[in-house]
Design a protein that fits this description.
The chain has 214 residues and is mostly beta strands. It has one helix and 14 strands; from the N terminus they run H-E-E-E-E-E-E-E-E-E-E-E-E-E-E.
Length: 214
């Protein structure tokens, strides 16, 4: 696998101008740092459909381009958030093309959910026909390192689909996915989708040390 050096840190993505950056809820702060001196702080106001994210696309080596395998890794601390039970939001999104049906789509996602007073992460993988399949959930507490390992393939390929890992807590996978026509062209991280499920003035969460690999 080759590592995209331009995407080593979220702070670097912001400084180098990866686009688009939406809304006014993003800030590079010392408080968000989990490695080094700076991290990305997302302040949530709970407005329906409000998003605040950084995006990397495949230009000048800054992001993925027509990839059949993509591994993303970042640090995440949700503990500044106030969420009602059974509410969730999109934390990470891999986007790209179905080579037999042109047009950009969401191919794989990571969600944060609050359930039974615990923060949990789970992932979605999409079939060629747009059917979505979800992993089971992994509990998170305090700063953690998160990985999403996505691979295109047929049902006969045991390595297809996606695996979500919270380092030190475990890995959950969905490999029963026929996604051979999908290609990754972009990665989004932050408050990728709210859907009105977060409370107004829900607080902040932190992201740091984003890396991606082919």
């Amino acid at each position: 696998m080759s590592k995209r050096n331009l995407m080593i840190a979220i702070a670097a993505i912001l400084v180098l101008g990866a686009s688009p950056i939406f809304a006014s809820t993003l800030a590079v702060t010392n408080a968000a740092a989990m490695t080094g001196s700076f991290g990305l702080e997302i302040t949530v106001d709970g407005t329906p459909n409000t998003i605040a994210l950084v995006e990397a696309r495949g230009s000048a080596g800054a992001g993925p381009t027509q990839e059949t395998h993509h591994l993303a890794r970042f640090e995440y601390d949700p503990n500044g958030l106030t969420m009602n039970n059974v509410t969730w939001f999109q934390l990470f999104n891999l986007r790209g093309q179905n080579i037999v049906a042109p047009g950009e789509i969401s191919i794989s996602r990571i969600y944060t959910i609050r359930k039974n007073n615990l923060y949990r992460l789970y992932a979605m993988c999409k079939f060629n026909n747009n059917v979505e399949r979800y992993t089971t959930r992994i509990n998170v507490s305090g700063p953690v390192t998160v990985e999403l390992d996505w691979t295109a393939g047929t049902l006969a390929d045991p390595n297809n689909g996606c695996c979500l890992t919270v380092v030190g807590s475990g890995t959950v996978c969905r490999n029963d996915v026929n996604n051979s026509a999908h290609r990754i062209d972009a990665a989004r991280l932050g408050l990728v989708g709210n859907d009105g499920l977060l409370l107004p003035n829900a607080g902040s969460y932190y992201l740091d040390t984003y890396e991606s690999f082919r």
